[in-house]
Amino acid sequence: MDIGSRDIIGIKIGECVEGSLDLYEFDMWLLGQHVTRIDNIAYLKSVLYQAEDDLIEKRDLHRFSKYFHNMSPEEAHNFILSTRDPSSEYFDIEDDLIYPNQQILNWGPNTDNVACFIVPLGKSIYASIEHYDNKGVVFTGEISPSYFSDTISKFIKYGTSKI
């Protein structure tokens, strides 16, 4: 079942992996980038649990917006990464809460190969993605928070019906 749009956020839950009741084929895209290209077999119960953290209504996206003032989406992405870099002047600012507040799609081993964030810039919300095997190449795009959250909600509802 395909949920959402691959150009914005898209999720596909495939068939149960032969011999397992809990592992499913699982593919996800953000801004046209295949997020799960390295690991697309998921323990669905765990992924569904982690997906709930990405519902927009559960977070305050603007909490740290003062740091993103006058930044491009790519600059905001790199700034967020720098809050985890011990050699950066921004390391551990705000008690290391910026990174988890802006991070999306942190869904266990299936997404360990990417950094994905959602940030407010001006009057818009942007998503970003960087594959760790292609460091320095950041894809960004404006995203509707309601579309993002609706897609995640539909994934949770459909995924729950499969388990």
What does this structure look like?
This protein is an alpha+beta fold and 163 residues long. It is globular and about 50 Å long. β1 and β2 (9-16) form a beta hairpin. The longest helix has 18 residues, at 145-162. The strands form two sheets. Strands 1, 2, 3, 4 and 5 form a five-stranded antiparallel beta sheet that branches. The protein has four helices and eight strands. It has helices at 44-51, 73-82, 98-102, 145-162; strands at residues 2-5, 9-16, 23-30, 33-34, 41-43, 114-121, 124-131, 138-142. The model has no long low-confidence stretch (mean pLDDT 95). The protein has one domain (2-162). α1 runs antiparallel to α4.
Topology of this protein?
Layout: E1 2-5, E2 9-16, E3 23-30, E4 33-34, E5 41-43, H1 44-51, H2 73-82, H3 98-102, E6 114-121, E7 124-131, E8 138-142, H4 145-162
Antiparallel strand pairs: 1-2, 2-3, 3-4, 3-5, 6-7, 7-8
Helix pairs in contact: 1-4
Radius of gyration (Å): 16 Å
Mean pLDDT: 95
**Approximate strand percentage:** 25-35%
Model regions low in confidence, pLDDT < 50 over at least 5 residues: none
Q: Which properties best describe this structure?
A:
163 residues, alpha+beta, five-stranded antiparallel β-sheet, three-stranded antiparallel β-sheet, 4 helices, 8 strands, 28% strand, globular
Short structural description:
The protein has helices at 44-51, 73-82, 98-102, 145-162, and strands at residues 2-5, 9-16, 23-30, 33-34, 41-43, 114-121, 124-131, 138-142.
